Structure formats: structure tokens, C-alpha cells
Amino acid sequence: MRSHDVDYKIIGTDIQVLEVELDPNETVVAEAGAMVYMSESIAFETKMGDGSEPDQGFMGKLFSAGTRLITGESLFMTHFTHRGGYGKAHVAFSAPYPGTIIPIDLGELPQGLIVQKDGFLAAARGTKINLHFNQKLGAGFFGGEGFILQRLTGDGKAFIHAGGTIIEKRLNNELLRVDTGCVVAFEPGIDFSIARAGGLKSMIFGGEGLLLATLRGTGRVWLQSMPIKKLIQALAPGGGNGQKESGGMLGNLVGGILDE
């Protein structure tokens, strides 16, 4: 089915809110629990699946919903529809942690968009949300996103969420090396794999982790400056910030020994 043609605006800077404007009988689909506020004429219903194939039957919907459980998402999605007879209605959504909301026009991406498993926020009804399996074992085990990603396809608007600041890069048969947790989304023409971060000393004491993601090919890539795992580590007692001084001293000490 063709996606509903929804309008939107993004409110705020650090902790953003997505406000979607609906005409009568238009629907937007969102992750359960993402809604902030909605107009009186908005009716919402929790359903299995994204609603992109209304005639798929119960078993098809069950399978579609079950695949979401594999990605760690809720079994259900919430459908918000403008049930008033006239005028505009609004419904707003926020992401679960600070960052940036990215609007994507899937009509410009005939092969869809591959997104980290917790990156999807909302989309116009008609957007299909499928699993995307990372077939490379290294990227699956160590890529920060596991074997399973999400693939969004359709011809309407979709909205994904990134932690911190978003950076969009356009690769032209190039290679880009990235922290494994900083990859938010990429076009299917991009090859995603994992490479060693450097020599033994750099891997252990460099602070960049043992491995880096490598993105190679032609297409767009979206990166985030603050993955949720880094945010948790920074805020946790005894986390990354608390260990910086002692870790730096230890790294310098052992690094000096290795240089001997």
C-alpha cells in the first residue's frame, strides 16, 4: 500500500519532539510508549505489525510482530489515526534518550534504509519494517548492533532517532572507519564490516575499543555522536568518566613498559 502523506515538524534541540500533522483518516505508526501528546480527534490502537499489509491475515501479522521481538522491540506498535471529519490533528512523539530525530523520505530510497535495531521512532502508515540480517560474523558479534538490524521500505516519511548529534556522510566508493556504536543507519549499497582498531597497544590502551566498524561503498551513512551505551557508561557511578584519571595513569604506565 502507498504510505500516507503526513506533515511534520521537529521541536527542540537537545531533547527533541516530533509533531506529526494528520488529515482526516491519515495514520502514523510509532513505537509503543513514544507518544507525548495528541489532539482530541486522534484515536490510537495497539496492533501487531506496522499495518503495511492489511490483508496479510492473523498468522502474517503474528510473524511480523514476532520478528520485532528478535530485534528487542515491543511485540506491538501503536497506530494513531485522525478520526475527526475535518481539519488537522496533531500527535507528538519523543525518543527514549537525548539526541536528534532524523526525517527520512523513503520515496528517495528505492531499496530502503537499514537502521540500528532501536533507531526507529515513527513512520507514516504504509511503511514496511522488516528484519535485516548482518551476514558477516565479525560485524554480527562485534559491530555493536548484532546480527539483526531493521530495514525500512516504502514511499513516505519515516523518522529515526540518534543519540547526541547526527552526522550525515556521503560515500563515493570510499571507506569510512567508525566507532562500532556510532552507526545509526546506512543505505543498502554500503558494506558494513568490522576491522581491528590497530596494533596491540592501541587496541588495549587507545580508548577506542578493540574493533572499528568499516563502511565501504557508495551511498549515505548516518552517524551518532553519543550512542546510548556511552551515555549509560558516562552517567553510571564508577563508569567511564569516573575511571578516566586512573585509567589514564594505568594506560600511561603500562604503555611506557611496552615501549621499553
UniProtKB/TrEMBL annotation:
The family database entries (SUPFAM superfamilies) matched by this protein are listed as: TRAP-like (SSF51219)
Entries under InterPro entries matching the protein:
AIM24, AIM24_sf, Trp_RNA-bd_attenuator-like_dom
Q: Output the NCBIfam families linked to this UniProt entry.
A: TIGR00266 family protein
Q: What is this protein called?
A: Uncharacterized protein (TIGR00266 family)
Q: Which organism is it from?
A: Hymenobacter luteus
